[in-house]
Amino acid sequence: MIVEFGHFAMILAFTTALVQTVLPMWGAVARDPALAAMARYAAFLTFGLVVLAYAALTWAYISSDFSVVNVVMNSHSTKPLMYKISGVWSNHEGSMLLWVLILVVFAALVAIRGGAMPARLLASVLSVQGAIAAAFLLFVILTSNPFLRLAEIPAEGQGLNPILEDPGLAIHPPLLYLGYVGFSVAFSFAVGALVHGRIDAIWARFVRPWTLLAWIFLTLGIAMGSYWAYYELGWGGWWFWDPVENASLMPWLMGTALLHSTVVMEKREALKVWTILLSILTFSLSLLGTFLVRSGVITSVHSFASDPARGIFILGILTLFIGGGLVLFAWRAPALKQGGLFAPVSREGALVVNNLFLATSAVAVLVGTLYPLVLETLNGNKISVGAPYFNLTAVPIFVALLVFVPFGQSLAWKRGDLLAVGQRLLAAFGLAVLAMIATFSVVRGGPVAAPLGLGLGVWLIAGSASDVLYRCCRRGLPLRTMIERALGMPRSAWGTALAHAGMGITVIGISATVWGIETLAIVSPHESLAVGPYTVTLEQSFKRTGQGFREDVVRFAVKEGDQAKGTIESSKRIHTGREMPTTEAGIVTYGLGQLYASVNDTLPDGKVSIRFYWKPLVTLIWAGALVMALGGALSLADRRLRIGASAKARKAVDLQGGSKA
Amino acid sequence: MSRLLGLCLVLWLGLVPAYAVEPDEILKDGQLETRARAISSELRCLVCQNQSIDDSHAPLARDLRVLVRQRLVDGESDETIRAYLVDRYGDFILLKPRFSADTLLLWLSPFMVLAIGGWAVFSRSRRQTPLHAAALDRTERDRLEAMLKDNDAS
């Protein structure tokens, strides 16, 4: 009964989403305030109905209702509660419903926060959100319905795909979807502005928090996914340039560009047309990502059972929104007035360079991901585009941008003084060079890329630090004034510094992977192996059972010199239900590095075939992403972005920030 | 790049002689083994989802790894081994696509976009520069003077 209720709510949500699409847009175009005012209520209604549908499906999972096909295929009555709840999005149908759920959550949030927005803009924004929701609800209803029942009810479900049975499943997809789908708000705002025919600094101020929010979630989602792949897939890599990873990286790159261009628009009213285009492109890449993952046109761990009907349907949605958005852009954008002149050497100019490089690296990832598909369609030739391609295209373009980041960060708005900025950054540059030389002399030999990368990371961190110091510290100022100045600095300035430093931390972590050590061996009990600075000794192999699995575990004792450093375990696990084997890697963190163990095989004579890695500084890769997200969050907390903040308070902070910018 | 380098440039320290993808596959000659890793990290495991044969546990990947090492021991160059594999399995096996008519756009388009974008930005900024007003020409100056005179007179 509850399942039918949810099914019905889902279909009803489709109709309310249609209402949300048509009436407010009509109101916005025909300037009918009553119709435009419908937007908020329709958005709340759609939100409520989708929540009901989603809750019903979750209920079916929690109560192990095996009359529902989706539950049978992806759950098992013995699964822990966490995997029953997250099992909902472990499969195509459920994850699409989660996608829609997050979409309507964003629409409802926009509706709540939209009181201060011009009514026509709000109406058209919510209308576009409604259209996206309607399209995807129709997709779920027609091709991927999670509520379908079975006539003959099996006694037990087939269980979750064991690779997915991990806390990562509970966190990674929702975070990633919050990022993907969050960019829909920027898209809707862009379309709204085009319909509305007006775009100004206020528009940018409305749109920036949403972009920032989506970016934070996407950053965390990608980092989380990367760490999950690192410990789950068992061969120690953390980024594989897999099409699905690329699908999330493209909107991140484009979204990062968008984030920076909205700043220019908000402060200086420049780059209007470009910002609108970026908003459309960023969400287009999110949609493309959804298409790539869900249609099964590419093979990957993420593409569940694929069905051509689904692919064609999503392709239709893709064409409708990307095509529609771009046509509208071509038609209306020339009417938008350009504003805000600036000299080439200025903060604006630097942000244009930022946008150029970020957009180009996104293009490189896009080309590499889609090229094999397109080529095969055109002339039937099959080629592979793997990591070496991206390392020669997208990576150098991105790295080139990073070299410029500290300059851009320190340049003044409107017209900057490159020489003065250069002098200010001299200390940071010296520090970076020092770090490079120091690493060179300590490591001696080895690949050149690593010390260079390390220097780049230090350059980014020191550059951010020197910007902060310049803003609040002068020679001769009393310490109290300096602290007061630092505290009085706008949070968005702190956010920028933190985010850029976070990138630096990640760059250091990535560079250090070159110094990673891999040791493979077949060892007998009590035999020792050297792994970098550590010695590991096979202590014992044994069998163990846990909730929903049984496993063969090998345990090694770890020593550094003569000092015992605990143990590390890795296992071959068989999951009940699907009887599918997985390798559970053992990871122990020492300082910033990690010791990584992955068992290949336990041989009948008690010997163990094992693979060890020592990965110095590897945790910095993800720590940097966390710092970046934290920077984003700080920026989001900036009072100037809070639309509800009183005009007075806003003005006061503005003056303060303006005097230092 | 870093991952690739990381795989190729495993540091050869310690006492244990076994360093390879599967312990029994290793070549005794460290230099040949390094080359084998470099080659195999750029070859696709044909039956896997986007893995190199160096990363994969699949039996086919193992066969290919052994084949690469066999040919290295026989003294073949990296290029001949790659050519042989392409001959046998097609371009699909190369994770780093060769530069050819088919892949021309693949390799060039990112840099073309960067160049075109850079050119567009550059030419725009040149067109846009007059932040300070241009000097008045003669007729403008005359008109201005006339207006000022008018103003003084009234």
Give the SSE map.
The complex is a heterodimer of chains A (661) and B (154).
Chain A: H1 2-30, H2 33-62, H3 69-74, H4 81-87, H5 92-113, H6 119-143, H7 167-196, H8 201-232, H9 243-268, H10 272-295, H11 308-332, H12 347-379, H13 387-392, H14 394-410, H15 418-424, H16 426-443, H17 449-472, H18 479-488, H19 491-512, E1 517-523, E2 528-531, E3 534-546, E4 549-560, E5 563-575, E6 580-584, E7 586-590, E8 593-602, E9 608-615, H20 619-636, H21 647-660
Antiparallel strand pairs in A: 1-9, 2-3, 3-4, 4-5, 5-6, 7-8, 8-9
Chain B: H1 2-8, H2 30-40, H3 59-73, H4 78-89, H5 104-128, H6 138-153
Helix pairs in contact in B: 1-2, 2-3
Structural commentary:
The complex is a heterodimer of chains A (661) and B (154). Chain A is α+β, with helices and mostly antiparallel strands and 661 residues long. Chain A has four domains: 1-160, Four Helix Bundle (Hemerythrin (Met), subunit A) (Up-down Bundle); 166-336 and 362-387, Four Helix Bundle (Hemerythrin (Met), subunit A); 425-514 and 620-660, no CATH class; 517-615. Chain A is built from 21 helices and nine strands. Chain A has helices at 2-30, 33-62, 69-74, 81-87, 92-113, 119-143, 167-196, 201-232, 243-268, 272-295, 308-332, 347-379, 387-392, 394-410, 418-424, 426-443, 449-472, 479-488, 491-512, 619-636, 647-660; strands at 517-523, 528-531, 534-546, 549-560, 563-575, 580-584, 586-590, 593-602, 608-615. In chain A, strands 2-3-4-5-6 form a five-stranded antiparallel β-sheet, with no helix packed on it. A four-stranded antiparallel β-sheet of chain A has the order 1-9-8-7, with no helix packed on it. The N and C termini of chain A lie far apart (60 Å). With 154 residues, chain B is mostly helical. Chain B folds into two domains: 2-93, Orthogonal Bundle (Helicase, Ruva Protein, domain 3); 104-153, no CATH class. Chain B is rod-shaped, with a radius of gyration of 32 Å. Chain B has helices spanning 2-8, 30-40, 59-73, 78-89, 104-128, 138-153. Classes of the chains: A alpha+beta (661), B mainly alpha (154).
